[in-house]
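Researcher: Go.
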Amino acid sequence: MNDQSSRRRFLKLSVAGVIGMTLGGKTLVNPAQASDLPHLEEDDAQASALKYTHKSPYEDRNCSTCVLLQGEKGDRWRPCQLFPGKLVSSKGWCSAWAG
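Model: Structure:
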């Protein structure tokens, strides 16, 4: 890899990182709208693909401890970045869980 393409790659990754850090703390769903969203069903195609379940099989890993979950802490059903337009159980879990 030559110096110029290395520099371009570095700049692209740097810009992407800054954008990610900037947007990382933002809630993508308006809390006022969140309560109007339907609950995610376990038999939903995307939910099935990610092995989503309303009750986590793990003691220490559930949606409420996942970085992808949005909304107000303490709410039983909250928006998740993986399932736009639907609410997931804060006691749930899927294979994309990230702590």
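Model: The chain has a mean pLDDT of 82.
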